[in-house]
Amino acid sequence: MVHKTKGIVLRMVKYGETSIIVTILTELFGVQAYLVNGIRTLSKKGASKAGMFQPTALLDLVIYHQESKNLQRLKEFTWSHLYQHVLSDVVTHSVALFMIELLQKCLKQPETHAELYYFMEDALMGLDRADQKIQANFPLFFSLHLAGFFGLRIDDNYSVKKNFLDLQEGYFTAEKPAHPHYLPDPLSEICSHLLKIMDPAELADLPLNKEKRRMLLAAFEDFYSLHISGFTPLKTLPVLRTLLEG
Description:
Layout: E1 2-15, E2 19-26, E3 30-36, E4 58-64, E5 71-81, H1 90-106, H2 114-129, H3 132-147, E6 164-166, E7 171-173, E8 182-183, H4 187-196, H5 210-227, H6 237-243
Parallel strand pairs: 3-5
Antiparallel strand pairs: 1-2, 1-4, 2-3, 4-5, 6-7, 6-8
């Protein structure tokens, strides 16, 4: 059956001489894999359309969808949104790839999840508009808010007395946890601020140095590894740490 949907490209691999298999988070059907035939051949204008399927690309799709199949087919595809910076600026692109990788490690089933799609679309477009100060804190904001879509929302009950963030239990506590998976002040207070931020523009007002960002990103990776089965270290994180050292 033919459907129209929006999609965010997560991964692309070559298939055969001229085709690709592309993994896409769709608005209607969640994460799906599509076979795109002949896409790596040159057009009359001398360019291949395979570049439209770079990870992070936002597309409008017409698809053939059959519930019984693991590999679907694309009928038509066009740009849904043309980025200004995500695909061309090194730092912006690296943050976006971190976001895509973290999402992929959390996705386990091809279930419909429109709200997750809208969150990802808004996050990527917000990143594209962000200045340097916002970009530096964007991975922290994204990591905390993405967790809620997978049942991992941290309870923002921080106070002067409850100032240890227990990453294993997902809330702030007055007692230092007996395990090593926790954050003390001032890092726990920063997390509380991040949880309250709904508009990424507010990230510009969060003064963090590279060391605090590094510690928080490491803690958030630990948080996901505790709660997502089979979660492995993020390949994009070392690159991100280097680029966001400012």
